[in-house]
Amino acid sequence: MLQAYKQAPWRTQVQWVGIFLLVVVALATVAGLYLFISGRSAATGRRIQNLESELVALHRQNNDLETLLGEIRSERALSERIDSMNMRPLTPNEALYLEVPGYVPAEGPSFAPPPSVIEKRTPVLLPEFTSTFLEWISSKLQEGLKSPTPTSEVLP
Amino acid sequence: MSENIKTRFLIICVICSAVAGIVAFQMIRLQSTESAKALLAASENYQGESRVIYPDRGNIYDSKGRLLAGNETSYEVALDLPSISQPETVASIASSVLGLDYAQVLGYAKMNPSETGLYYQVLDNFVSQDKIIELETIKEDYRSRTAKGNEVLPNIDGLVWKAYSQRTYPEGTLASNILGFYNYLDRTGGTGFFGLEEAYNSQLAGTPREVFYVYDPQRLSTVDEVPPGVTLILTLDREIQAMTEKQLDDAIAWSGAEGGTIVVYDPEDGGVISMATTPRLDPNNYWEYGDLFPNPMPYNSAISKTYEPGSVFKVLTMAAALDSGTVERDSRFQDTGSFNIGGTTIYNWNMGGWGDVDMTECMQYSLNVCMSYLATEMGPDIFYSYLKNFGLDRKTGIDLGGESNWPMKLPGDNQWYEVDLATNSFGQGISLTPIQMVMSIGSVANDGRMMAPHLVKAMVIDGQQYDVDPVVVGTPIKAETARTLTDMLVNSLENEASVALVDGYSVAGKTGTGEIATPYGYSSSETNASFVGWGPAEDPKFLVYIWLEKPSISQWGSETAAPVFSEFVSKLVVLMDIPPDNVRMAGSNTTSGQ
């Protein structure tokens, strides 16, 4: 009777092999996922490095273009153009002044908003890209623990 | 499962566990030894590199947003020695494109890094973008070639370049006395000299930041952007500055003066609209400073050079006399042509007496005797109290580097004598900078309020623009006094049909001829000719101060500086969009723009 309920030896072996393979597959899956994620992370990291380099290069290009514009529009360059076009400065007697009701002369140049305008800066790398899974779970749990904002019923 | 298989399985498990245990033990042991820790620390050096990021120096713009000082890309060209495979090609290209010495470059290129420990050798600095484009083209050309057979293709591997910012001044010498210069050849310890570059050096430079750049993209962290230095927006108008400099150069050439200064100032808010002096340096070539400014020549005479201004000072004496109630506009004075004080006799400029004159005529005829009388009537306490209130005993605090002043002699000082009270009243025996004169007389043009002279109108800091509020330094005289004196000076110019008058515009003004002190006394042949004037008289928009040093065609300010003022202001009103009096008065009752 005892022999009738005992597993056949080959079944036991298959079960062990199965468990082993399951562990191997699980490990392989984890390793694959790790490789995939780390590969993507490395590629993204490299892209960010390239973008940062590009940003620096663009800043320099902006400076160069602004300087070039400054040279093209410099007083010396404009004077040469004026001379080449046989133009001369206006004298007070030649100036004609027209009254423009309601006209408000333009104020000085504006290169940036005034301090009253608060600019909210977004970080380059969002927390989603830097926090670990556990940190994400923890933050979500903390969010969940916070009591929901009470809503008041809107009376008709 | 047979016992045999069980035993085998057990043995395999034990062996695997033992191996795993040994590996784990070894892993822990390796990481905990001293050499392992040292190795770990050494590996950090290969994780990335620490770099100091120098922010771009802040730009400087004029009041209309035109660039006066900026930055452009420049390059450092160097040899990355381990990467060089063809030293001769590298040396040849570097010498032909950059004009470097072939033998020297070849010497560097052939050095063995493992022997010398030298891996990186800088060849040239401040290389222009054009040269770099030329090098890039050659590099690409070599790379695009295909070898035929055993042909060895040329390459310039190991010749590398790195970009950085270089200070640049697109306007050249224009406003250089205001801007100062930045010694950009010193790439790490550069600093601003004179003018705005010195006064705002730390703000323009920004804050350098040390950043660790990781090589491992897995460990990448964001590098905060290093904000550029503060951007300055000036009260200066480039077009007016250019015209002022040209007018000054023409005036010096015409009058035979040794040098000169013209300052245009907004008396309402203290903003300097233009400021021209001689000589002028191109800050792009700042190393020429020593040749152009032999010691002790100041970089900006308008703020650094003191002189005895002469009769333009009478504006302040009369202001003090009127404001203190010593005299009124219509008070009379009997001018005998001489005035005795402290054992010294004071004479008028023509050694003559002008008889019965009122206060306007005292100014019109520029009577030293009358001024001496006024100062004496006021007494030293009141007179010098007013001079102090006009800020003449201290620097103006203008936001330019290099301002200086000459200590004012006061009663009680060892060097002060009674006669100084008289001589000071007509601008002798007292040394002042043009900007001190501008600020103090500006109060007469601005209803008694004296505004701090300044160049910076606004600043851009970390992406936000901050306006700089004008500063009232004081109110040395009452508004009524200021308006009365302005009216007197308008009349005095008109009464004498002065060459300083400007067609169509009412201007107030005063000439000045200051004798120059020498070791043997005052020289009458060499003078400082000055003129101060402001307009339109009923609502002044500008104050112009002109100083010609030792003019040779005439010693008198009325014959040298005054006509320059007239010619200059007739151009200035066009550039400042100020209509003539008749047009302005006609439209003054309505809100309008011209």
Structure, briefly:
The complex is a heterodimer of chains A (156) and B (594). Chain A has helices spanning 2-5, 9-72, 75-84, 127-130, 133-145, and one strand spanning 100-101. By secondary structure, chain A is mostly helical.
Average residue pLDDT of chain A: 81
Q: Strand share of the residues of chain B?
A: 15-25%
Order of helices and strands of chain A: HHHEHH
Q: If you compute it from the alpha carbons, what radius of gyration of chain A comes out, rounded to the nearest whole angstrom?
A: 37 Å
Strand content of chain A: under 5%
Dominant shape of chain A: elongated
Shape of chain B: elongated
Percent in helix of chain A: 55-70%
Low-confidence stretches of chain B: 590-594
Structural class of chain B: alpha+beta
- Largest beta sheet of chain A, briefly? none
Largest sheet of chain B: 7 strands, mixed
**Biggest chain pair interface:** A-B, 59 and 63 residues
Radius of gyration of chain B: 36 Å
Number of domains of chain B: 2
- Strand tally of chain A is 1
This entry's quaternary arrangement is heterodimer
- End-to-end C-alpha gap of chain A: 79 Å
Derived from helix and strand composition plus strand pairing, the structural class of chain A reads mainly alpha
In CATH's first tier, which class of the largest domain in chain B applies? Answer: Alpha Beta
Describe what you observe in this structure.
The complex is a heterodimer of chains A (156) and B (594). Chain A is mainly alpha-helical and 156 residues long. Helices cover 61% and strands 1% of the residues of chain A. Chain A has helices at residues 2-5, 9-72, 75-84, 127-130, 133-145; one strand at residues 100-101. Chain A is elongated and about 125 Å long. The longest helix of chain B is centred in the first third of the chain and has 30 residues, at 3-32. Chain B has 2 domains: 55-211 and 223-234, Penicillin-binding protein 2a (Domain 2); 238-282 and 299-586, 3-Layer(aba) Sandwich (Beta-lactamase). Chain B is elongated. Chain B is of the alpha+beta class. The chains are: A mainly alpha (156), B alpha+beta (594). At the A-B interface, helix 2, helix 3 and strand 1 of A face strand 3, strand 5, helix 10, strand 17 and strand 18 of B.
